[in-house]
């Protein structure tokens, strides 16, 4: 049997606790889950701010090392990755997408250079033509073309375009897993669906698995196959997206679902009872 | 029709009995910059007219760079270069004070109506409260001057107000960083409403909060508004928040108001193609039918497209849309829309 694409076992991470720190904060505690290698899927990780979802993403990206437990990618423990060659091989497989596309790109740098750099570094593009072909191919996957992007600075593009370029950049190494931390929370509603639809498309057409980290239950329901709800660093509920969000069992998951404001037949007085106040 | 059955009088004729609390007429506000002799003009607010009734929560929705923040800044009279008011008027009608046209007042007169009559709730609660001073000092700094009463009576009033908002008096002794985001935002709301203003402008006050906290803060805003009978101009890009809070809703696109109506009627039957798309594309729990994104990008306001600014992205654009700016026209009682295809015609 092939090992899972990604497997977390009892992963935890604490901050602080040094000689002068007053207390130790446990950002993530005992998180376990796995993504199958055979069947690509979109797994949503949902939680409020401070629930540890970004810390978890950073550990999966090898940006932080877990203080407890193990993270395995394709059967290989991330803690065992040594040297430039192994690091590059890992980065080729696992690519990040960040929340704010305006901050992810250097405002003084033309955006196409990110694509060419990724092609040279990860996709072994030796010549300019080769890099351009790689960039063009990746941009086509996200509904853009090199002609639209070439020579442009970040401020000349909209948030939706920039986020799609960020996704195109992540696609150049042909990764097996994309870790997207709040990828749509900074972009406009009219463009949000374009990006979430793109995730579905990447899963179905290119077989890329996606960790979709968000606090927005509605888009998580729309796009993901499975859902993991985190609170204070721990997973409180997980399962099929439709099941978890239509009939949550954990009290926190229920509270979260009840707090989602609906636009259908919302009645200001009924939806917001004064008794909701502490 | 479900035209706001629980508040029929206000929804049908907001301005019938009393003059509106705020009327904006033909307002234009542009950013004018000049770099190395090249002049650029960004038309962030272009010909907007609207009225907000007494005791009403008016919602303003729009995407980033649609001009909603510029509009409320211009309405509040809080503009500074490179933003200029080019044309139009902003007139408040404060009970007990009478009509006040913001752009006919001196800066001192404008400062005098702040807090007491017109107040502002901002998004970044952390940057409103002084981070190195206790909340108590922020109350004194902002409100003491406007309350015009001796110190013991002032603190009594502050504590009474906090109690009314279900906030413990202990928050006065806390530093902002000791409070959670939701608590800080509640303190900012308490601060903005301490003088019982007639008109409150709220700019994305819940956007940075988690859903659970957001719901409580919205309930608090609603309660304060009810208790004081003030008017609120509430700005957020989140349509679901509008659906649960506002009485009337205005939709902005690229510096213009494109649709306005009673919130529930507008959400149930949007007429402008942009509003229709916006509402149809909202993901809902329990619904996984594929939803299309809108093609294209929001226009550059330094060189907006001629005619209707939405026409390059509009699925039903006609020849006239490329040339003539559609006027805001009454499509149903209290429901205005700026679209050549939608005005008059039923959806």
In words, what does this structure look like?
The complex is a heterodimer of chains A (278) and B (347). Chain A is of the alpha/beta class and 278 residues long. Chain A is 39% helix and 23% strand. Chain A has one domain (6-259): Rossmann fold, CATH 3.40.50.300. Chain A has helices spanning 53-60, 83-93, 101-104, 112-122, 128-141, 146-149, 159-171, 189-206, 217-223, 241-246, 251-259, 268-271, and strands spanning 6-16, 24-35, 42-46, 68-73, 76-77, 94-97, 177-181, 209-214, 226-231, 234-240. Chain A has a 6-stranded mixed β-sheet, with helices on both faces. A 4-stranded antiparallel β-sheet of chain A has the order 2-1-4-5, covered by helices on one side. In chain A, a hairpin with a 7-residue loop joins strand 1 and strand 2. In chain A, helix 4 crosses helix 5 (128-141). Chain A is globular and about 55 Å long. Chain B has 347 residues and is of the alpha/beta class. Chain B has a domain at 8-117 and 197-284 and 291-307: 3-Layer(aba) Sandwich (Rossmann fold). Chain B contains 11 helices and 12 strands. An 8-stranded mixed β-sheet of chain B has the order 6-7-8-3-9-10-12-11, with helices on both faces. In chain B, strands 2-1-4-5 form a 4-stranded antiparallel β-sheet. The longest helix of chain B is centred in the middle third of the chain and has 18 residues, at 211-228. At the A-B interface, helix 7, helix 8, helix 9, helix 10 and helix 11 of A face helix 8, helix 9 and helix 11 of B.
CATH architecture of the domain at 8-117 and 197-284 and 291-307 in chain B: 3-Layer(aba) Sandwich
Q: Can you give the mean pLDDT of chain B?
A: 86
Q: Which CATH class of the domain at 8-117 and 197-284 and 291-307 in chain B applies here?
A: Alpha Beta
CATH fold-level name of chain A? Rossmann fold
CATH superfamily of chain A: P-loop containing nucleotide triphosphate hydrolases
- How far the N terminus sits from the C terminus of chain B, by CA atoms, comes to 14 Å
Mean pLDDT of chain A: 87
The order of strands across the largest sheet of chain B is: 6-7-8-3-9-10-12-11
- Annotated CATH homologous superfamily of the domain at 8-117 and 197-284 and 291-307 in chain B: P-loop containing nucleotide triphosphate hydrolases
Taken as a percent bin, the fraction of beta residues of chain B is 15-25%
């Amino acid at each position: 049997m092939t090992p899972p694409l990604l497997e977390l076992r009892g992963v935890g991470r604490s901050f602080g606790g040094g000689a002068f720190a007053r207390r130790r904060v446990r950002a993530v505690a005992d998180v376990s889950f796995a993504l199958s290698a055979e069947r690509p899927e979109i797994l949503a990780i949902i939680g409020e701010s401070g629930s540890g979802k970004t810390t978890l993403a950073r550990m999966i990206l090898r940006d932080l090392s877990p203080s407890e437990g193990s993270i395995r990618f394709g059967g290989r423990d991330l803690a065992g990755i040594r040297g430039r060659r192994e690091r590059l091989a890992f980065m080729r497989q696992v690519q990040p997408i960040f929340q704010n596309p305006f901050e992810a790109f250097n405002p003084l740098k033309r955006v196409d250079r990110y694509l060419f750099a990724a092609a040279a570094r990860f996709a072994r593009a030796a010549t300019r033509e080769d890099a351009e072909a790689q960039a063009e191919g990746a941009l086509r996957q996200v509904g853009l073309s090199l002609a639209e992007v070439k020579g442009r600075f970040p401020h000349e593009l909209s948030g939706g375009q920039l986020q799609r370029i960020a996704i195109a950049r992540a696609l150049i190494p042909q990764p097996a897993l994309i870790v997207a931390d709040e990828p749509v929370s900074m972009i406009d509603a009219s463009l949000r669906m374009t990006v979430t639809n793109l995730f579905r498309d990447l899963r179905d057409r290119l077989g890329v698995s996606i960790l979709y980290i968000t606090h927005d239950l509605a888009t998580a329901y729309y796009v993901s196959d499975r859902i993991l709800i985190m609170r204070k660093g721990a997973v409180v509920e997980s399962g099929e997206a439709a099941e978890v969000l239509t009939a949550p069992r954990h009290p926190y998951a229920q509270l979260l679902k009840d707090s989602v404001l609906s636009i259908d037949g919302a009645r200001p007085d009924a939806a917001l009872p004064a008794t909701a106040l502490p | 029709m479900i035209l706001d059955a629980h508040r029929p009088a206000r929804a049908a004729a907001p301005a019938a009995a009393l003059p509106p609390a705020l009327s904006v007429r033909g307002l234009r506000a542009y950013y004018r910059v000049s770099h190395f002799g090249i002049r650029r003009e960004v038309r962030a607010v272009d010909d907007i007219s609207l009225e907000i009734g007494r005791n009403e929560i008016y919602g303003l929705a729009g995407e980033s760079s649609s001009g909603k923040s510029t509009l409320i800044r211009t309405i509040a009279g809080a503009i500074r270069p490179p933003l200029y008011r080019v044309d139009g008027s902003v007139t408040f009608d404060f009970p007990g004070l009478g009509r006040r046209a913001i752009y006919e007042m001196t800066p001192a007169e404008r400062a005098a109506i702040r807090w007491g009559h017109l107040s502002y709730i901002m998004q970044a609660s952390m940057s409103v409260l002084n981070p190195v001073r206790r909340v108590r000092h922020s109350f004194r700094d902002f409100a003491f001057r406007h309350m015009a009463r001796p110190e013991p009576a002032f603190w009594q009033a502050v504590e009474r107000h906090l109690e009314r908002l279900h906030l413990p008096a202990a928050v006065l002794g806390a530093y902002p960083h000791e409070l959670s985001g939701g608590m800080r935002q509640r303190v900012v709301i308490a601060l903005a409403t301490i003088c019982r203003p007639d008109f409150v402008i709220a700019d994305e006050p819940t956007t940075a909060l988690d859903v659970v906290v957001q719901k409580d803060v919205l309930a608090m805003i609603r309660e304060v508004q009810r208790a004081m009978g003030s008017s609120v101009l509430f700005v957020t890009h989140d349509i679901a928040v509008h659906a649960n809070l506002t009485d009337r809703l205005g939709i902005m696109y690229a510096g213009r108001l494109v649709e306005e109506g009673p919130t529930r009627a507008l959400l149930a039957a949007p007429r402008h193609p942009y509003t229709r798309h916006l509402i149809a594309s909202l993901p809902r729990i329990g619904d996984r039918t594929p939803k299309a994104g809108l093609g294209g990008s929001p226009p550059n306001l330094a060189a907006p497209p001629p005619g209707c600014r939405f026409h390059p992205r509009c699925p039903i654009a006609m020849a006239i849309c490329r040339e003539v700016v559609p006027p805001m026209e009454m499509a149903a009682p209290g429901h205005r829309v700026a679209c050549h295809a939608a005005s008059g015609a039923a959806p």
